[in-house]
């Protein structure tokens, strides 16, 4: 099997760990979509991260097929394509009509039009090694966009001072996954894999930091009404005694 042709045992090890952690990354939004399913509404959630993630997974899948001997990239990105597509189906099913139509239009432009154009253009590059290089750097650019996509959510967290739309599990596994795939890329001597995961690691840490800050603030706010209630009770008691 191609998996055993890895040029370095460390690349194989980190690749397997990267697959395992990436599965958790892909599964992390499940509670969000279960909530959407239950409430029959997408509420304040956005489809953009899932649209871009599907686009990225499809590109990495094609890159892995072109490069050969990258079985670990094929497995995880095949899984990612299927799961992200299912997420989008659920989102579109329960989104309000304007949001639904916008999501479908973006899907058509990015995941059908742009993806089809890129794959067709790469197909006509005469030398396979050149095609792999071009495809690799396209994947780098798109992957950085994927990691940057949650910035809109981070802005919402800062604006609302609420971590409701920032799942901690996603940020945690995203950060660990970025470390594993960075190491995989380094030992495989593939900078196209390593570079975007540096960005992923930094943004993952930023998300966890914001979660820690605003979750603590939420806990403090939840305790405040009880303190106010106690003060009010004391004030009433004193008034009655007078």
Automatic annotation (TrEMBL):
It is found in: Cell membrane. The keyword Transport applies. Gene3D superfamilies: 1.20.1280.290. It is a multi-pass membrane protein. The chain crosses the membrane at residues 6-27, 47-65, 71-94, 106-125, 131-153, 165-187, 193-214. The keyword Glycoprotein does not apply. GO terms for molecular function: sucrose transmembrane transporter activity; sugar transmembrane transporter activity. Keywords: Cell membrane, Membrane, Repeat, Sugar transport, Transmembrane, Transmembrane helix, Transport. GO terms for cellular component: plasma membrane. InterPro entries: SWEET, SWEET_rpt. Belongs to the SWEET sugar transporter family. Mediates both low-affinity uptake and efflux of sugar across the membrane. This is Bidirectional sugar transporter SWEET. It comes from Cucurbita moschata. The gene is LOC111455952.
């Amino acid at each position: 099997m191609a998996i055993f042709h890895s040029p370095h045992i460390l690349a194989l090890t980190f690749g397997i760990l990267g697959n395992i952690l990436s599965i958790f990354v892909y599964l992390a939004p499940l509670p969000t979509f279960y909530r959407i399913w239950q409430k029959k509404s997408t509420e304040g959630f956005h489809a953009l991260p899932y649209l871009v993630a599907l686009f990225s997974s499809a590109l990495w899948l094609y890159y892995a097929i072109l490069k050969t001997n990258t079985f670990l990239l094929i497995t995880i990105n095949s899984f990612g394509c299927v799961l992200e597509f299912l997420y989008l189906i659920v989102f579109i099913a329960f989104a309000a009509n304007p949001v639904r139509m916008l999501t479908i239009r973006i899907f058509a432009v990015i995941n059908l039009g742009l993806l089809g154009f890129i794959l067709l253009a790469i197909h006509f590059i005469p030398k396979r090694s050149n095609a792999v290089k071009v495809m690799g750097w396209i994947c780098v650019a798109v992957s950085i966009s994927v990691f940057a996509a949650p910035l809109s959510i981070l802005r919402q967290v800062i604006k609302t001072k609420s971590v409701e739309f920032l799942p901690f599990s996603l940020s945690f596994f995203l950060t660990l996954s970025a470390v594993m795939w960075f190491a995989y890329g380094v030992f495989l001597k593939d900078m196209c894999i390593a570079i975007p995961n540096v960005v992923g690691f930094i943004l993952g840490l930023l998300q966890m930091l914001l979660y820690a800050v605003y979750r603590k603030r939420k806990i403090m706010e939840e305790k405040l009404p009880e303190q106010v209630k106690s003060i009010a009770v004391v004030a009433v008691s004193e008034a009655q005694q007078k």
